Fold this protein.
Amino acid sequence: MLRLAGAASTHVGQIRKTNQDRAIFTPVIGAVADGMGGHQGGEQAAAIAIETFERLSESVPKHRLIDTVRAANRAVFLESERPELRGMGTTIVAAVLHPDERRLTMVNVGDSRGYRLRDGDLEKITVDHSLVEELVRQGRITEEDAQTHPQRNIVTRALGLSAEVEIDAFDLDVRHGDRFLLCSDGLSNEVAFATIAEELHAAEDPEAATRVLVDLAVAGGGRDNISVVVFDVVDEQDPGFIRATAETTRRPTPRATAAALDTAPMPAISSDDETTGEPDDDGGGSDDDGQEGDGRGDGDGRADDDGAVDEVPRDADPAAGVDRSTAARPSPEVERDRSRARLVALGVVITFLVAFLGINWFASSAYFAAEDSGEVVIFRGRPGGILWIDPEVEERTGLEIDELTPAGVQKLEQELEWTSLEDAEDFVDQLERVAVSEPED
Ligand code: MG
């Protein structure tokens, strides 16, 4: 039977006077909340959100976790009606284990993150709902720029800003030895991905991992509150577990994964749809319908260091934000990388094939009428052709251009497209009827 063993830690950092982060790990759930909206507001928002999760006392199915995020959102939103708390909000990242299914659900709103470490590879699971993530996605800044961007603390989604909230959820397979990290941006902005990977991998247990990561973030400047939750997936029946208790296990050298290869664009799932995306399953089934509630149109913001809330349009589209590193790879994994490369190549071939067939279909799925050698002719294809596919003569109608009225010629020159040959023929019939009746007027 699977279970989680973990620890949570939070630190005010070196600059801030208050800690507006909250972090918990219970046998049921791990969660991190990063509050925003002024001193009182930020603390309140994070505390309210985390209390909502703390009340979970038994195993939580996926939909219940999403419902809990919604409940936390409403609770924060209601409290923010109070004038002194107006504008407060909080991020959330939370995870629950489903031991019977050997799966784990992770949810997030905002820029607090979830990662999975497996066989020494660290993979970012969540996608930040932040301005810089959006800029990176649009190719306007690089990942490195994002690390130091002056607006890197602006989030595009948060709990408590409106009655409904959009939630991303990730359904992951788990196995003995997987280690998960949930953290606020006080860690991810202060400590490099590769360092996080290395330390997380090297740490003896979750408690040691939280301590080391918080220490690194504080030492790195500690410009923000820092929260870290680390937990391990433990299967006492797993041979790895039995071996580990007898001797010290040696894990392979840590390396940061080129996550783009085995991390499909993070698909979000909706609570009422059990179809899930699995970021680790070579782009397995994904469900684009990740929209929870509407909430669009109202800008959400993250408090700056001075507590001011910046407004940004809420148009973030969940997209892969992946961390990369060039660390050396140990040889046992070369084979895995090769098969991964083969899969990618196969994917590329399939993509081209689908695109080729799609273009062919599109180019030849319409009919239009045009003049050819003084006659109205029905063509199959698109006027002017599409890429390499020229329209072909489908039917010569015998209707001479000279017989058409000026209005008919004008109509013909519009090169209207029809989805069926019958529709195109009807159109020519109409031209013909007008052409025939006109001289009699
Ligand atoms: Mg923060």
User: Anything to note?
Assistant: Confidence is low (pLDDT under 50) at residues 249-330. Residues 34, 184-186, 224-225 surround magnesium ion (CB under 6 Å).
